[in-house]
Design goal:
Length: about 70
Amino acid sequence: DDVAAAALYEEALAIFRAIDDRGGMGNALVNLGDTAFRQGNLDASERFTNEALTLSRQLDDLVFEALGLS
């Protein structure tokens, strides 16, 4: 379910931030954005997606940039 998924993505994001794994952070942020969207939390979805998009552009990661724009 999305509530459990969001909790796991939040945990993963915290770990990726702690070890400065920016690719992992982008992945977790995209998933958090998708999960928030499915839950109807559009503000959180936009916040996560915008952070993922900014990060993907810093990393020049076109895959995550495309996911952030979709």
